Amino acid sequence: MSVLWTSEDAAAATQGRATQRFAATGISIDTRTIRPGDLFVALKDARDGHDFVRAALDAGAAGALVSRIPEGCSQDDALLVVPDVLDALQDLGRAGRARARARVLAVTGSVGKTSSKEMLRAVLSAHGTVHAAEASFNNHWGVPITLARLPQDADFAVIEIGMSNPGEIAPLAKMARPHAAMITTIAPAHLEAFDDLAGIAREKASIFEGLESGGTAVIPTGLEVSDILRAGAAGAATIVTFGTAPGSDYHLISAHIAGDATVVQAERAGKPMLFKVMTPGTHFASNALGVLALAEAAGCDPTVAAMDLGAWEPPAGRGQRQRIYMDIVDERESFDLFDDAFNANPASMVAALEVLAGSTPRDGVGRTAKGRRIAFLGDMLELGPDERAMHAALAEHPAMARVDVVHLAGPRMAALRDVLPRAKRGEYFETAAALAARARHLVDPGDVVLVKGSKGSKVSLVVEALKKLRQPGARDAHRGKE
């Protein structure tokens, strides 16, 4: 691997002091995933990263970014000593951005940030080398890490920017300095920290404060806060709109699920577009149009980019669909699993339920004669004082009428349990761990199963429990039949 940071370059970027020379090929904040040659960054979070510096060096780290000489280390170790590790990491990110030649694209929004980032990765990879965070690195340390890892010769960089509280997005956007930035949508999320949807919209629109001169703002239409987004984008050289509203630059005409794909009909500047997103979910259609707008701003042909969307699949926890084979011989002994367990708010929950409602179970293959649509739902977090009403409102959505059984976990989901029709009401537990312990008994061959909830609800434990029902070797035995 090529050298990402020499000790001299890193010291110049951070105004730090290197105890020994080093040449780092990567950046790491976790000794569990560190690779030889990485620069270990000793951040303070739940634990103090300084406690793991010795282990990182012993694991092959090229050096460590620290604010003091950690226990078990000395001046003989390759340490870059700075007054504050997080400040230094952000300086490293700014320096990484400044020296890069890449066209930088940034994505934010209440729903679909990571999926849009991964769509962009798939689309842009046909046009050059693409750098993007492997995980959802979108906060005050994730963004600078992504920028610090940016290779100087990358053609494109895709930066995801998130927030939990007011005032977080603009500094990160100014650090990333994107040539184009997109807002996926605005929906009720993080309402514990904001008074209303308008406050969320203003915070998301602050991403445009970081645009480079001549930059492009990509915004959704048809929202009650679309005018706020447009006002926030007023400083951009170009504003491109996408959505269902007539007059949108990328106008979504229709989207429908066809098997394991979503067929999208749209118009760009009055010219028709027809393409597939190779995963079910009409909510992916709107994000795809925003992605095409960003790709065009980066110099790509949007028609070619639309075809390249066929190479994209959602990452784990973001709506990924897979078939779980429970028998190595009989492929009928299987069920379909939608893993959407990474994040949740009312908008994304409804979108996931619509995907489940549009899916077709298989009858006559399990213990029950009829295949079922089953939802395992965990709490939606950070919704503020109206959270119970927002959970209960899911029962009234039309998609819920096509769901056969709903199993629930978490104190907030008790509000949904109380209003669900008795025929749909499955099992309820205070914790996702308790629901996960029961999960294997609640599914059957032929079922289509959705698992959805906020990351903090730990409903991903249910996904792990259901995946354990796969028989060893069954995936290989049935490869190509999914």
From TrEMBL:
The gene is murF. It comes from Thioclava arctica. SUPFAM superfamilies: MurD-like peptide ligases, catalytic domain, MurD-like peptide ligases, peptide-binding domain, MurE/MurF N-terminal domain. Belongs to the MurCDEF family. MurF subfamily. Involved in cell wall formation. Catalyzes the final step in the synthesis of UDP-N-acetylmuramoyl-pentapeptide, the precursor of murein. Its EC number is 6.3.2.10. Pathway: Cell wall biogenesis; peptidoglycan biosynthesis. Residues 107-295 form the Mur ligase central domain. Pfam families: Mur_ligase_C, Mur_ligase_M. It catalyses: D-alanyl-D-alanine + UDP-N-acetyl-alpha-D-muramoyl-L-alanyl-gamma-D-glutamyl-meso-2,6-diaminopimelate + ATP = UDP-N-acetyl-alpha-D-muramoyl-L-alanyl-gamma-D-glutamyl-meso-2,6-diaminopimeloyl-D-alanyl-D-alanine + ADP + phosphate + H(+). Keywords: ATP-binding, Cell cycle, Cell division, Cell shape, Cell wall biogenesis/degradation, Cytoplasm, Ligase, Nucleotide-binding, Peptidoglycan synthesis. Residues 326-454 form the Mur ligase C-terminal domain. It comes from the Bacteria. ATP binds at residues 109-115. This is UDP-N-acetylmuramoyl-tripeptide--D-alanyl-D-alanine ligase. InterPro entries: Mur-like_cat_sf, Mur_ligase_C, Mur_ligase_C_dom_sf, Mur_ligase_cen, MurCDEF_CellWall_CoF430Synth, MurE/MurF_N, UDP-N-AcMur_synth. GO terms for molecular function: UDP-N-acetylmuramoyl-tripeptide-D-alanyl-D-alanine ligase activity. It is found in: Cytoplasm. PANTHER family: UDP-N-ACETYLMURAMOYL-TRIPEPTIDE--D-ALANYL-D-ALANINE LIGASE. It is an enzyme of class 6 (ligase).
